[in-house]
Amino acid sequence: MKLHTTLLTAVLATSLFSAAAFAADAGEAVFKAKCAACHPGGGNIMNKKATIKGIKDAKKIITQVRKGGGGMPAFDGKAISEADAKALADYIMKTFK
Ligand code: HEC
Questions:
Q1: Residue ID of nearest Cα to ligand 1 atom 6
Q2: CA angle, 55 as apex, 65 and 76 as ends, to 5°?
Q3: Mapping DSSP to helix (H, G, I), strand (E, B) and coil, where does residue 69 land?
Q4: Which of 44, 47, 67, 72 to mutate to test the pocket of ligand 1 (most atoms within 8 A of CB)?
Q5: In order of start, what are the domains of the chain with their CATH numbers?
């Protein structure tokens, strides 16, 4: 019984950990696939003033991703799912300060 509980705890802890790790990786993967071409290193090759550094509001990032504009294409829910958009915003805020 004791072994059972220990095993269960270990399995739970592992799956929780990998879920968190996966979310971070998803944001990075989406960024590299869809954003890095124009925003390498958090910059902006088309409009040097509109970098994606120092943004503290995930909504601002997600709105820009959904609507695009100013030369940036819009990405709908098929291009980037809601979960991926959130992971992407978290990745950007964490990475480009
Ligand atoms: C084809 C090039 C291109 C791609 C690809 C692109 N962007 Fe942009 N992005 C731009 C341009 C140009 C602007 C400036 C828009 C403006 O001046 O209104 C911009 C602006 C932004 C801004 C607002 C910055 C600010 O402070 O005004 C955010 C946030 C952003 N992009 C995030 C992203 C994310 C996230 C992705 C990937 C899903 C992405 N962009 C993909 C070109 C691109």
A1: 35
A2: 10
A3: strand
A4: 72
A5: 23-95 (1.10.760.10)
How many Å separate Cα 25 from the centre of its chain?
Answer: 8
| Cβ-proximal residues to 30 (8 Å cutoff; 6+ apart), any chain | 80, 84, 87, 88, 91
Average pLDDT value for residue range 40-45? 98
What are 43-64's pLDDT values in tens digits?
Answer: 999 999 999 999 999 999 999 9
CB 55 within 8 A of CB 64: no
Give the mean pLDDT of 79-92: 97
Probe residue for ligand 1, chosen from 31, 32, 39 as the CB with the greatest number of ligand atoms within 8 Å: 39
